[in-house]
Amino acid sequence: MSTADVEAVWRIESARIVAALTRFTGDFGLAEDAAQEAVAEALVSWPLASPASPAGWLMATARRRAIDAIRRRAALQDRYALLAADVAADSAVDEEIDPDEIDDDVLALMFVSCHPVLSPEARVALTLRVVGGLSSEEIARAFLVPVPTVQARITRGKKTIAAAGVPFELPPAAERRERLGGVLSVLYVIFAEGSTATSGDRLLRPDLAYEAIRLARTLAALQPDEPEVHGLLALCELTAARFPARTGPDGSPVLLDEQDRRRWDFSAIRRGLAALAKASTRGLGPYGLQAAIAATHASAPSVEATDWERIVLLYEALGRVAPSPVVELNRAVAVAMASGPARALAIVDELVASDRLPGSHLVPTVRGELLARLGRRPEARAELELAARLCANQRERSVLLRKAATLS
User: Fold this and answer.
1) Using CA atoms, how far apart are residues 243 and 351, in angstroms rounded to an integer?
2) 184-217 exposure pattern, b = at least 16 Cβ within 10 A, e = fewer
3) What is the rounded distance in angstroms from the CA atom of residue 390 to the CA atom of residue 400?
4) How far is Cα 284 from Cα 291, in angstroms, rounded to an integer?
5) pLDDT tens for the chain, residues 1 to 408
6) 156 exposure class (CB count in 10 Å sphere: 0-12, 13-18, 19+)
7) Quick check: 393 and 200 in contact, CB under 8 A?
């Protein structure tokens, strides 16, 4: 079995293994460390002799490593004895893990990884590490931060969870619904970074985006009666459907009006529309409304044939349930397409006057586009040049500079 095979098994099974270990040991940090030791051992031993049940081998090995660690803690001898007895009783079960089973342990693991006591950065790092199975190196590469930074976030996160006495259990139904928004926001942040990288020399980080989709699918299977879970999944699927057409062969961005829509992933569109239908059962929330906007784009044969009036209405609804300056800015773009750039510029100028997105390249980007459409070329060029200076993504910056140069 190759290293790639080991990594694939780990990516699929890691959440279940860490969750089960946490339930048995009562120690989130110990469970994650033991699971990491198990996969490290697998990288050495599996190429020599592949186990009959890879998931069972990882679970049994990780459990033994957890027991070894507990044995070294003199104060936990009683817990060790209980765990040792449990392993002896359940060893046969370990070797017969059902790879298709998804239980509440994984859901509990998601809620622990996204616990409110953690910083947003720690929530993202822990979710990708213990639920997604990504290594510190992969997370660091995705977010363009040093590996030690990611490792420090994970270590601090585990210590914070331990110090706060966060239990490994599913929150009660009412509390779970309150905290579900936090879990969804973490998955959304992960997907958003994969969909449009905030910095670096790539527009897309598809591995990160697809990992967010995988986690969203898992959450949807665990929480099938939560409309917003399906709304987020729909938004991710419908947005990712455009990935094949969003960049050229050299990685340069391709704008929506220039994309070859025949290259869109229609299987992803079908999955997204199916998830949106489930999200619509009790009215659309913020993620469902964004998914409905993405669905409107996905169903249009061209930019010109897009139902921009519908998109404006959806953004207005989104602004009522989840108001933000980014929503207003996106509404301005839709208004420009539906009613012309003059009305849209008034919306953007209000954002500028209130300084609600300071330091963001998005406002001057949109303002520059609107000014260009109104024939105010010198002002448009100045706005696009400002946007380029503020933009940390090299691919987006090159597009902004190219547009600005056409206005000279």
Assistant:
1) 30
2) bbbbbbbbbbbbbbeeeeebbbeebbebbbbbbb
3) 11
4) 9
5) 788 888 888 888 888 888 888 888 888 888 888 988 998 898 888 988 888 888 889 989 989 888 888 877 655 455 555 555 555 545 444 444 444 444 678 888 888 999 999 999 999 999 888 888 888 888 887 777 899 999 999 999 999 999 999 888 888 878 888 889 899 999 999 999 999 988 888 999 998 899 899 999 989 998 899 999 999 999 999 999 999 999 999 999 999 999 999 999 999 999 999 999 999 988 899 999 999 999 999 999 999 999 999 999 999 999 999 999 999 999 999 999 999 999 999 999 999 999 988 889 999 999 999 999 999 999 999 999 999 999 999 999 999 999 999 997
6) middle
7) yes
Contacts of 340 (CB under 8 A, 6+ apart): none
This prediction has a pTM of 0.81
Structure token digits, residue 202: 């790539």
Alpha helical stretches, state H, 225-265: 227-240, 243-246
What does the angle CA 75 – CA 31 – CA 6 come to, to the nearest 5 degrees?
145
Percent helix, strand and coil across the chain, each to the nearest 5:
75, 0, 25
- What region does 188 belong to: left with phi over 0, alpha with psi -120 to 50, or beta? alpha
Backbone angles phi, psi at 361, to 5 degrees: -80, -10
Instruction: Identify the DSSP state of 131.
Output: I
